[in-house]
Design brief:
- The chain is of the alpha/beta class.
- It contains 5 helices and 5 strands, in the order H-H-E-H-E-H-E-H-E-E.
- The chain has a domain of 109 residues.
- It is elongated.
């Protein structure tokens, strides 16, 4: 009787994780931080760590660049997703967390002056625009916003680093 109860308890305890694993296997994954579990009800792609959903217009613009870096964007996970979807090199500002000290503002300004970076991209996340908060290289974001014109491209704000204001 005890063995039977233990067996039923074990099966019950593993049923939820097993169902979640099956739902995860059934959906496609992409990017540096894929989500797990059932697909979202909205049907939209959602990526962790500030990654982007598919933005065909932005992808086409980046594919059309001929600079050392097609774009610069906060966080390496976001940059990685763009690199995979555009097959172009994308500069990661601030590393994985967005708060690493690389590149510095002066290093980024030098790269822009040498025409090594075509665009600077800011994801349109509610409450987070250029220069938000004290983290995430606000110095670079504020300099870019003050120096270059922006345009909306899907779910992103794009700064053309070859055309100062």
């Amino acid at each position: 009787m005890a063995v039977g109860a233990l067996g039923i308890g074990l099966v019950s305890a593993l049923a939820g994780p097993a169902a979640y694993a099956i739902a995860t296997i059934a959906q496609p994954h992409e990017g540096g931080g894929p989500s797990v579990g059932p697909a979202e009800a909205t049907g939209q792609n959602h990526f962790g760590f500030g990654q982007m959903s598919n933005n065909a217009d932005l992808n086409a613009m980046l594919k059309d660049t001929n600079t050392e870096w097609s774009a610069a964007i906060l966080r390496s996970s976001t940059a990685a997703g763009l690199e995979l979807s555009t097959d172009t090199p994308v500069m990661a500002i601030g590393g994985f967390s967005g708060s690493d000290p690389a590149p510095s503002l002066s290093q980024f300004q030098d790269d822009v002056a040498q025409h090594k970076v075509a665009y600077y991209i800011v994801m349109n996340t509610p409450g987070r625009g250029p220069g938000w908060g004290n983290r995430g290289h606000a110095d670079i974001a504020k300099w870019v916003a003050a120096t270059f014109h922006s345009s909306a491209v899907g779910d992103a704000t794009l700064y053309n680093l070859s055309a100062p204001k």
